[in-house]
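This protein record is not my work; I was only asked to verify it. Take the sequence as given and treat only the tokens as open to question. I have pasted the whole thing underneath without changing anything:
***
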Amino acid sequence: MTTVTAREPGARMKTHMVRGGGGLLLHVREWGNPDGPPILFLHGWSQSHQCWDKQVSSPLLKEFRLVACDLRGHGMSQAPPGPECYTDAGLWADDLAAIAGQLHLDRPVLVGWSYGAFVICDYLRAYGQEQVAAACFTGGAVKLGQAAFGTLIGPGFLDHFADATSDDLPANIRAMRGLVRAFAAKPLPASDVETLLCAGMVVPAGIRASLAAREIDGDDVLRSLGVPLLVSHGRADTIVLPAMAEHVLATCPAAEASWYPGAHAPHLEEPERFNRELAALARRASRGRGERTDHGDAARSGQAGPSGPGGGTDGADPGAGPAAEAGEGKRGRRKFLTGLAAGAAGTAALAAGLVSAQPARATTGNDMVVGDTNVAGKFTSLKMTANPYSDPALWVSTDGQGPAVEGDNDGGGPGVMGTTSTGTGVANAAVIGQAGADTGVGVAGTGDVGVRGDSPGATSTQVGVKGTAEGPQGVGVHGTGFKGVEGVSPNYGVYGAGFFGVYGLSPVGAGVYGDSSAAAVPGVLASTQVSGGLALSVQGFPKFSTAGKATVAAGASKVTVTLATVVATDSVLATVQGSKPVSVKNATASAGKITITLTGSTSSSVTVSYLVLRT
């Protein structure tokens, strides 16, 4: 191993060349306190160690030994062209073991962004977890292959993959620009974008393709993991979808969630929060030395996360929490008994807990959790969090067959009502319902209006009712009654995302009904962001309906599509896909064909989607 000491502005930095798996040379850098607990950072697909600049130049320097490497094929590490150098999981594991061994990293915290989580799983599978204090996945992926594409790996990656692995340089540049844009929900500083783009372009296209050619499934590692795992993930991530993080939380008993409102790079989008939570994880792991951290139901379902500067992720003191119940340990739950006894003594204990659970700031304090096994042999718990600033104030969970919470009001008011006056967007929703099972329903309502949501906002982040279903049988929002689902909003009345974003079925009326009073605004708007996807599918017309896409050539203003079954009396609906300076002027049918005319022509081709109806 070769080591060079250099200086960067504001920090003393060392560079190392480490011989990794198969003898390949890896470029490694380190900063910070040489005697502090080590944290090893692993970047993502087609990036470099520089993506961690906001960590290695932060106050983390004073307390921790910070180490970041360029993965094989990336940055300043060796990049042999052969695919066999990148498709062998053992080589990736050997790389990590070589860095930890040659730099004498004593039980480091492993931090993996995106593809970096794959490398962590490779290492844990090959070398075990005894030499690791904790792990953190930030936008991390644990599954790769055809089954994951579109379900766990999203369009933010898939839409750019072909160009990113092409031999054509302009295509590569176009892909890297699109990928970097997808890293963040809001634009990153120009200097960050430039660094990410340059790092991305350093990686040869063939190596990018080899990295994605692996078939990876990290479930075996996740199920057996006993050290703390922090899952930091953006709700708006389109590269590694939030469903991936939900899968990790459901599979790994040691995982705890920290949800961000942003996209694929929490460490770049909210570096101060990310650094606080990482420091808390590293401190807890350093104290615990192998003590497992159970994240509880709230974190498992995506509602709880690390509190930040105070340490424990659920507000509980990590060194003094109740012991885990053996029967619940496999599912990552603790059976908390707070001394709540029957009668007056129990009431007094409850009152004391309520008071103590409301600190002035949510950085310290203990959650009050009451739980026991119900009559069906399942675990039921009620939790009041000490961190109501980011966690639910009251959390009820059950393994039984009945609902966790049921509200009934005969006086005319709502059975269950949630009101929030702080924050914006669905991350600060008054009521959140989630279903972990494929066929489960997050929120169901029956009555004259099953579910109603009113939003005063004027952007797509202000949603009256939002339902997201990621399983192939799931339903985002389901309502039955005179009006199954009603949404009232100046922007989108009802917005659905998932396998069926919005699904409506009615034996007597309209399955989905949309009404708009604004000029040039459709009652129902359908769009797709997936290449080859269909924006709107209509079924059930007794005579004829068909849908498809057509391309209006550059410089042209209309296109004619031959459809043998079309007649002149058919109706044609059409819309321009994507953001274009033109729109559909009219769409008409004639014998055997349809014609779609735009409001003008453009210098590039335009894709239009059409729907032909015969009623």
About this structure: The two ends are 75 Å apart (CA to CA). The first helix runs from residue 53 to 56. The chain is about 25% helix and 25% strand.
